[in-house]
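User: Okay, second chain of the day. Same drill as before: sequence in, structure tokens out.
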Amino acid sequence: QVQLVESGGGLVQAGGSLRLSCAASGSIFSFNAMGWYRQVPGKQRELVAVITRGGSTNYADSVKGRFTISRDNAKNTVYLQMNSLKPEDTAVYYCNARRLDSDQVYDYWGQGTQVTVSS
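Assistant: Same drill. Structure tokens below.
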């Protein structure tokens, strides 16, 4: 059973920074990709950033240049460094791990961590 545990959320003023961490119960190298998503009430969960096993990254347009995703395979942890935070970044942030097996996609989720940016 895969477990993902997020930490690092909290309350910050606009323009501030936070670093989210996602610790996996097993080797993150076993996953094809890991990412961060966010969700606000009444809206669909949206992709924020993703990093592949090979280290390629992709970001939502709204966070490009402000957020950085990284991974530490030795610690089985993925990070999301968030700088220049804006009130519209307020959401619950979820860690995701994705494994591809033939034609099957397996998604695993953490419990989420709240990020609140005050204006």
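The chain has a mean pLDDT of 96.

User: Thanks, on to the next one.
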